[in-house]
């Protein structure tokens, strides 16, 4: 790949800004034999593991504080997912790089493909990834600056028989020090926790923008092939040109079938990379949406205004999670739809006037499409699609409804 070439559907410029491109690029400059970006990714992973341990140990001191305990559990899940994504990308960097060529506008061999479809894909890829940068950046900023908007809030932490009051921080680790030492040196502790929030934001933005771009690339490459299937065998001219047109159509059909086979091979490789991360993502994100919705409800029930900083912080967090889960499920559904549309595209062309050889090739292409079961699954039966998103949202709504009725009955008594 030429790093200066803009003929790619993926948002290469954004990938370079986040360092994702340099992380997977085997030609990135090395210092003392090490890729600096891989070293940075390793430090991010190490920092994430330390953060999860601190949150887990801190949870012990919040056993009497349900709200903070749930917040710690939510943070452990979120940081684990971000850390896992960065470590997985670093491990699979060579495999990712080898499959990045399929995002090129010039990846397909047949010259009759409609390039404007892929140009549309590039524009959509850039705009969608920028939207997610804004969404995840807003979450990062909200969690980073929240301590300065609630200066007078202190958390009561029980050490043996002593209660210590620590000032509210971004992640609210519990440190084995006196409250005087913590509150007087609050800024130092704030920087430590803010850095972890920034690392989380960076890992989330870097990976998610890449996945979104790849999914858009796959869907539009398949769409381009389907459109070519529909139009390549249109008969033009009088009956005298029929034989020539048939021969040309056969050659074109071979090229398009080869393009489709190339894409199917690339999709299989990409799905091998995405499947473990997608499985963890759907589990983690579903859990986060439910937890965050639960915490918004509990905080509001306990007297917090919907405009209070803790609830705004949760709303700013749950909204991107819901949007991201929807977009993920939608993109994979779109890929499934584009793949399933191949046979319809083949059948829709003007094939009836073609030769037996052409019709046999057409039948071969249809059988090939039916044989390929290219759908991302997280289990033997569960396919990643919009139905999965609907089931998560239905479960969240059911839990909140049950809680609402339960708390309503308690309040009435």
From TrEMBL:
Q: Name one Pfam family in it.
A: 7tm_6
Say if the entry is tagged with keyword Membrane.
yes
Superkingdom classification of source: Eukaryota
One MF annotation (Gene Ontology) recorded for this entry? odorant binding
Instruction: Give the bilayer topology.
Output: Multi-pass membrane protein
Write out the entry's keywords from A to Z: Cell membrane, Membrane, Olfaction, Receptor, Sensory transduction, Transducer, Transmembrane, Transmembrane helix
Annotated Gene Ontology cellular component terms: plasma membrane
Question: Which GO BP terms apply?
Answer: signal transduction
- What parts of the sequence cross the membrane? 39-63, 69-88, 130-150, 197-220, 273-298, 310-332
Q: Where, subcellularly, is it found? A: Cell membrane
The UniProt similarity line reads: Belongs to the insect chemoreceptor superfamily. Heteromeric odorant receptor channel (TC 1.A.69) family.
Name by which UniProt lists this protein: Odorant receptor
Which organism does this record belong to?
A: Aphis gossypii (Cotton aphid)
Q: What is the lineage of its organism?
A: Eukaryota, Metazoa, Ecdysozoa, Arthropoda, Hexapoda
């Amino acid at each position: 790949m030429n790093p200066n070439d803009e003929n790619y559907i993926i948002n290469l410029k954004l990938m370079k800004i986040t360092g994702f491109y340099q992380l997977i690029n085997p030609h990135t400059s090395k210092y003392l034999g090490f890729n600096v970006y891989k070293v940075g990714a390793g430090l991010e992973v190490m920092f994430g593991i330390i953060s999860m341990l601190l949150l887990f140990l801190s949870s012990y001191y919040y056993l009497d504080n349900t709200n903070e305990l749930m917040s710690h559990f939510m943070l452990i899940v979120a940081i684990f997912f971000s850390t896992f994504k960065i470590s997985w990308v670093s491990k699979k960097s060579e495999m990712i790089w080898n499959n990045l060529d399929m995002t090129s506008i010039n990846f397909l061999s047949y010259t009759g493909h409609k390039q404007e479809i892929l140009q549309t894909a590039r524009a959509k890829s850039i705009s969608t990834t920028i939207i997610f940068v804004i969404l995840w950046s807003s979450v990062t900023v909200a969690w980073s600056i929240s301590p300065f908007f609630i200066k007078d809030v202190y958390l009561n932490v029980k050490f043996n028989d002593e209660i210590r009051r620590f000032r509210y921080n971004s992640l609210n680790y519990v440190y084995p020090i006196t409250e005087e030492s913590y509150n007087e040196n609050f800024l130092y502790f704030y920087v430590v926790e803010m850095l972890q929030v920034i690392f989380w934001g960076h890992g989330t933005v870097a990976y998610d923008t890449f996945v979104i771009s790849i999914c858009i690339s796959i869907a539009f490459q398949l769409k381009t092939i389907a459109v070519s299937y529909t139009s390549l065998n249109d008969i033009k001219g009088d009956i005298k040109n029929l034989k020539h047109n048939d021969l040309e159509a056969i050659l074109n059909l071979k090229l398009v079938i080869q393009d489709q086979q190339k894409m199917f091979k690339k999709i299989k490789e990409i799905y091998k990379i995405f499947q473990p991360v997608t499985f963890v993502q759907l589990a983690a994100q579903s859990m986060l949406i439910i937890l965050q919705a639960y915490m918004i409800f509990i905080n509001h029930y306990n007297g917090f205004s919907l405009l209070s900083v803790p609830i705004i912080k949760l709303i700013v967090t749950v909204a991107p999670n819901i949007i991201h889960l929807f977009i993920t499920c939608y993109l994979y559904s779109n890929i499934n739809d584009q793949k399933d549309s191949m046979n319809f595209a083949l059948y829709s062309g003007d094939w009836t006037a073609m030769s037996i050889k052409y019709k046999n090739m057409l039948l071969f292409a249809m059988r090939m499409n039916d044989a390929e079961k290219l759908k991302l699954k997280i289990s033997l039966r569960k396919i990643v699609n919009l139905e999965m998103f609907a089931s998560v949202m239905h479960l969240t709504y059911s839990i909140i409804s049950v809680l609402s009725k339960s708390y309503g009955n308690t309040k009435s008594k």
